[in-house]
Amino acid sequence: MVKLRAARPGEAGELGALVLRSKAYWGYDAEFLASCAPELRIRDAEVAERRIVVAEDAREGRVLGLASLEGGPPVARLGLLFVEPEAIGRGVGRRLYRDALRRAAGLGFRRLLIDSDPHAAGFYRAMGALGPPRPGSAGAEEEPPAGLVRFEAVPAPLAAWARAWTGGGRAVHVGNVGEFNAQFGDASLDPGQRAARHYACLAAFYSPSPGALVLPGAVPPEWIRRVGRLLEWEGVEVYDGLAQGGSGLPAGGGLSDAVRARPALAGRLGGAGLPLVPWGLTAGFARLSGRPWRPRELRYESKSAAHGLFARILAGGGHPRILLPGQWPAPTRRAAARQLAARAGAGESTVLKSEHGVGGSGTTVVSPERFRAAGGARAVLRTLPRGPLLVEEYVAGPADPREPRDLTYDGFVDGAGRVHEVGGAVMDVAGGGYRGATVGPGVVPAWARMPLLAFGEAVGRELSAAGYRGWFDVDFVADGSGRLAPTETNLRLTGPSIAFMVAARLDALRGAGHFVRIADRVELGARLPDAALDELCEVLERGCAELGAVFLPAIPTAAFDPAPWLGVLVAAHSGEALDAAEALVRAEALAVGAAFSGGQRAEVPSRWPASSKSKGEGGFRVT
Q1: Which of 9, 29, 391, 599 has the smallest count of CB within 10 Å of its CB?
Q2: Could you tell me the strand order of the sheet in which 171-174 lies?
Q3: pLDDT above 50 for 611
Q4: SS3 289
Q5: In a 10 Å sphere around its CB, with 0-12 CB exposed, 13-18 middle and 19+ buried, how is residue 228 labelled?
Q6: Distance between CA atoms of 485 and 479, rounded to whole angstroms?
Q7: CA 402, CA 294: separation in Å to the nearest integer?
Q8: Which DSSP letter does residue 266 get?
Q9: Helix, strand, or coil here: 620?
Q10: Cβ proximity of 243 and 237 under 8 Å
Q11: Pairing of strands 75-77, 236-239
């Protein structure tokens, strides 16, 4: 194990010798090293001034590497980062670099400049450093010393909202997606959506730094190890297979009650001193966490109740760029048919909604053309899920297809009732169904940013006043004249919230400014053996890294379904790299699926769905 500490003046000579040994590792001759020696020398009086930190073996106390953080705000320089030759490749350099970036953020530096030996350029790219500096940025006006490669990073502490979400530390993530959906009993939710067993995998990302994951189904161990390595988590305990079965819900309750039925596990999780974070609030989670259960907190999960809330906010004025589409309840199918026929006859498109659809389930857009092609209102309604419907005015989108159509605001209400803004995102929606979302600098167009944030905060204040505590989002559609129409609230975590969590983690690890995209369904085309899935993820990780992007498998378990798919996250410091990474992921996934399909889907058993740790008393640890 390696620990970091401040360097001591008395060891300056020893540290200077380490620097020269590390430089010599790359095969430089004695003459070149002698010419570098004056520049690389460390003097006793400089140790504190240059903010030198050393990495040492925790058991032997032997120094394995060092890094310096030099200069004054706003620009810092990574003057030195050297590792003993025998320790290269053991993660020492990574620890030192991450520490330097963290210290720079804490000291208020806005740029970290790095002049790298060419042999170390690949290391800094892998750490997320960018090069060369952007035109006009600090350091761009000067050339790096001869023979060196200039990189830069933007130090960033963990986002303020992320610190407020879990107190800035680790949390226990409870993947109770199915438990949350099932409590509404909406007829529009098919059994898979009620259980949402695959989406429970998103529990890995309920906060930037998990301490434990609690999952209803079994997950591949290699998946957690890979994600943990890429996001540099330590000591994450995983308890999976706790609520196996077709519905994902054990008799008499959901995942939360399955944990409570294992007193040792419940005690371990509750006694860890970490906050428990669910996908959404339920009676079972209240019992598990000791939180008061107030069912009316969730009343605005209903689409009609949310519509009424939006109307009340807009009645107070102050949101001129927000428009509210008309919405009318249809207590019977016959009433829905009449309203739909009247609107189609007037040449108007209509949105049909259920009260508690998830991810577009229960939401259908019916144009006059579709109405006629289907043979009338009753024919359309026969294709929809059973249950009450809402008839809503359709808002036509921007004429330019490059303009975002579907946007969302994310925020949360803390235990004291304070509303915290997380930000805005652009969603990928097709045919009324959610397919993913993108977050990052400038993703929300400038004309929409302030109206979206202001209205989202207003909704948060109303939710707080109504007693709600937890994460929420507000979804919008953009019209063709620069206005936003709110369509629903979600009183739970969502796909965009997962992207925000990953962006916060990567910004703190690798420097600010990450774009993150979550893609719900990347089609595979064939069921994969679990070894093939591991190999695909390895290929995608390497390929994305070559593009300057990060690949994270988000939902691996669906790769073994009869109609297989993979949920993924990709991240990069530019929109171009993000798009290229997504294109690579989709192309490689289809190619692997084609290789395994052979004209039919293979029935491939997995080695991991049942294990001793599925009993819930054990777990495995990411280190």
Answers
A1: 599
A2: 276-278, 171-174, 210-214, 236-239, 620-622
A3: no
A4: helix
A5: buried
A6: 7
A7: 43
A8: H
A9: strand
A10: no
A11: unpaired
Buried b (16+ CB within 10 A) or exposed e, 358-385: bbebbbbebeeeebeebeebeebbeebb
What are the Cα distances from residue 354, in Å, to 311, 345, 360, 386, 495? 19, 23, 10, 9, 20
pTM for the full model?
A: 0.92
Nearest to 517 by CA among 562, 584, 613, 462: 584
Tokens of 303: 């689409």
Residue found by looking up tokens 């053996």 in the block: 529
Stretch 273-296: mean pLDDT, rounded?
A: 96
Report how far residue 264's alpha carbon sits from residue 541's, in angstroms, rounded to the nearest whole number.
37
- Tell me the CA distances in angstroms from 74 to 67, 402, 476, one per residue in order: 19, 37, 38
DSSP state, residue 216: S
Q: Is 476 helix (H, G, I), strand (E, B) or coil?
A: strand
The SS3 assignment for 413 reads strand
Phi, psi of 336 (to 5 degrees): -65, -40
Note the pLDDT tens digit of each residue in 205-224. 999 999 999 999 999 989 99
Q: Judge contact between 420 and 497, C-beta under 8 A.
A: no
Would you say 162 and 503 are in contact if contact means Cβ atoms under 8 Å apart? no
Nearest in space to 530 (alpha carbons), one of 218, 145, 281, 108: 218
621: pLDDT strictly greater than 60: no
Widest pairwise Cα distance in the chain: 91
Cβ(474)–Cβ(486) below 8 Å: yes
pLDDT of residue 135: 55
Q: Which tokens sit at 473?
A: 């989002």
Q: Which position has the higher pLDDT, 132 or 14?
A: 14
